[in-house]
Design a protein that fits this description.
The complex is a heterodimer of chains A (about 120) and B (about 300). By secondary structure, chain A is mostly helical. Chain A contains 4 helices and 3 strands. Chain A has a 3-stranded antiparallel β-sheet with strand order 1-3-2. Chain A is globular, with a radius of gyration of 16 Å. By secondary structure, chain B is mostly helical. Chain B folds into 2 domains: about 100 residues, no CATH class; about 210 residues, no CATH class. Helix content of chain B is about 75%, strand content about 0%. In chain B, strand 1 and strand 2 form a beta hairpin. Chain B is elongated and about 90 Å long. In chain B, about 30% of the residues are buried. The N terminus of chain B is likely disordered. Classes of the chains: A mainly alpha (about 120), B mainly alpha (about 300).
Chain lengths: ~120, ~300
């Protein structure tokens, strides 16, 4: 049963991770590196993030490859160099579009699955 | 698809080894990226939790970062989506054509950005080839020469380090031109002190195949450049001479004299075949460039990316 729930969550996350990452980077004026982003996700849900931190890295990379994020490498004293990400104007445009799609989808799904609590 | 096998990783190296195992069979360049991402993250996590044992941190990480199996699945999934996106982009121009016209197919190469990039790569490879060759020969001989002095070893280490950085940069260039997937991150280094890292770097087969690649880039670069420049010049020359001769015969004085091909003079009757040959030659060159770049991509991947 737990496995089925996990699989459902993972299928849902496929597109949502990208949306959330764009959202996080659009909200902040600083450049963020992967670990920082992971920690923000973590804090947002009291320690139990909806997706595993390991899954955000490949998505960050593909967003950068699409030109929606720009990145730069900064050497770090405490370990390997960090890659900092910043959202591009193109990325903001995509995010704006995706936000609309997400709202529509959420409202549509809610109509059928309903909210058990009033 | 959960692969949370009996063995729970106890150290970062353990985790990386399991991740490598879970990604077995995937593109080596992607494995390199995944390992580098994981290592960066896990080290940051350890740095943030100073004082705790690596084992207890790792146990927590499986919960937050994901098990090696989960993470491997995520990379495979993303890679598949991204490649599918790239694939549709490159197929689109030809796929929309329903008429299987051989001529059209032959000339559609002019619309292929990758073919133009490949041609540029062939021309550029003379420059990069000379640079890599000089760098490798200079570094190797100086390392040998300085070996008897105290600075010999640091010099060798610095040289190999720079060579590996150059390999990463070359990989980016080759991927841009050929589409062959190359690493986007530096390879994770082993844990341990500076000496251990240096040891792994010198024992790594890839350090030495990288040097071999850099040495081979000179003859290859010369070859690529010669082919590209010869065919470009010859093809453009034929087109130019043909066009000039035709304009000349129409009374427009564009040529200083007449053009001769070998021993015979280029007559207006021969001008049209000359133009056609020239255009065919230039088009064939673009096709050739695409092939050369593709083969070079596989070659570069074998020498620059460890398997």
């Amino acid at each position: 049963m737990d496995d089925i729930a996990r699989k459902f969550q993972r299928d849902l996350n496929v597109g949502l991770v990208a949306l959330v990452l764009l959202g996080i980077l659009a909200e902040t004026s600083d450049d963020l590196y992967g670990y920082e982003i992971a920690k923000r996700l973590h804090q947002a849900r009291d320690g139990e993030a909806l997706f595993k931190e390991g899954t955000i890295y490949p998505v960050l990379r593909s967003l950068a490859a699409a030109g929606w994020l720009s990145s730069r490498i900064v050497p770090s004293y405490s370990g390997p160099p960090r890659r900092y990400y910043r959202i591009t104007d193109e990325g903001r445009a995509v995010l704006e579009q995706w936000r609309g799609i997400w709202r529509d989808t959420r409202d549509f799904v809610d109509q059928f699955t309903g909210d058990p609590s009033p | 698809m959960t692969r949370d096998d009996a063995s729970i990783p106890r150290s970062i190296n353990d985790y990386l080894a399991q991740l490598r195992g879970a990604l077995d069979g995937a593109d080596p360049a992607m494995i390199q990226d995944a390992l580098s991402d994981a290592e960066t993250h896990l080290r940051a996590e350890c740095a943030a939790r100073l004082g705790e044992s690596e084992e207890s941190i790792l146990a927590a990480i499986i919960g937050s970062y994901g098990s090696p199996g989960d993470v491997a699945d995520a990379y495979r999934q993303t890679e598949k989506t991204v490649q599918a996106a790239f694939a549709t982009q490159s197929i689109r121009p030809t796929a929309s054509r329903t008429t299987p016209n051989i001529l059209r197919q032959f000339f559609s190469v002019y619309r292929d950005a990758r073919a133009w990039m490949s041609l540029f790569f062939m021309l550029l490879s003379l420059v990069t080839g000379i640079f890599y060759f000089t760098f490798a020969v200079l570094g190797l001989t100086l390392s040998l020469g300085l070996a008897i002095l105290i600075i010999g070893l640091p010099f060798l280490i610095g040289f190999i380090g720079i060579a590996r950085a150059l390999a990463l940069a070359e990989g980016r260039l080759v991927e841009t031109v050929t589409g062959e997937r190359m690493p986007r991150r530096a390879r994770p280094s082993e844990t341990g002190g500076l000496l251990a890292r240096i040891g792994t770097m010198l024992r790594d087969r890839r350090s030495w195949t990288t040097l071999a690649y850099q040495l081979l880039m000179l003859p290859l670069g010369v070859l690529y450049f010669s082919i590209a420049i010869t065919l470009t010049a010859f093809g453009a020359g034929l087109v130019g001479a043909g066009a000039g001769t035709i304009l000349q015969s129409l009374g427009l004085d564009v040529l200083p004299g007449t053009v001769s091909l070998g021993t015979s003079e280029l007559t207006p009757w021969l001008a049209l075949p000359a133009i056609v040959t020239g255009v065919l030659m230039l088009t064939a060159l673009l096709h050739l460039a695409r092939k050369v770049a593709r083969i070079h991509g596989i070659f570069a991947k074998n020498l620059l990316v460890s398997t």
